[in-house]
Amino acid sequence: MQPKQVHNWSYSKESQGYILVFDAHFISEIPLEIMNITFFDLKPNSIKLLKVLLENLIEESKLNDNLREKSIVSGINFLLLHLTRITKDLELNKKYKPITLLKFSKLVADTISKNLTVKDYADQLHLTVEKLNELCKENYGQNPKNIILEKKITEAKRLLYFTDLSIKEIAFQLGFEDSSYFSRIFKLKTKLSPSNFKST
Question: Is the pLDDT of residue 103 over 80?
């Protein structure tokens, strides 16, 4: 999942596995190839390798010496490198979104609090507005303006759910100069007002 993405998990009784939550400083280290893949179908040898690695990382986390953190970081880096190698072997990788769109997605997430235009993003990506529109419609089925707005609404949901910020503060934090306009857009997208969403 992308950073700050609102999510929910539902498990069957037979579910087994591990969940990795990366600290903010790790996000910049995660290869874009991995960020673009929703799931991996792992081969038996990869499952065996990663299972042992994750079990070792858990054991390392229980230690209390000055090598623990370096060992864990090295283990996670190895895991990311192994997954990156898998992505390069996938035939389906050719169908994944262009690297430019991954950069666009990350750029929107990094500037979520700013009121940037589609042209601002296109300029930072060294594209024309027309080319960015074309890429977004081809791969996401919607234009860049809608994608930016969707990400702002997703972040608004997170802030409403997990913080005590007022609706006005959240609107300002997401680059909306008018909180009433923010409330109208939020309701249009979610069918709920911000206050109703917060109370559900």
Answer: yes
Tell me phi and psi for residue 89, to 5 degrees: -90, -10
Q: What is the mean pLDDT of residues 157-169?
A: 92
Choices 1.10.443.10, 3.40.50.720, 1.20.210.10, 1.10.10.60: CATH for 99-199 = 1.10.10.60
User: What are 29-51's pLDDT values in tens digits?
Assistant: 666 666 666 667 778 888 899 99
Do 115 and 175 meet the contact criterion of CB atoms below 8 Å apart?
yes
- The per-residue b/e assignment along 127-160, b for 16 or more CB within 10 angstroms, e otherwise, is bebeebbebbeeebeebbeebbbebbbbbbbebb
List the domain boundaries for the chain. 24-95, 99-199
Q: From 158, 108, 194, select the one nearest 7 (Cα to Cα).
A: 158
Contact predicate 111/128, CB 8 Å: no
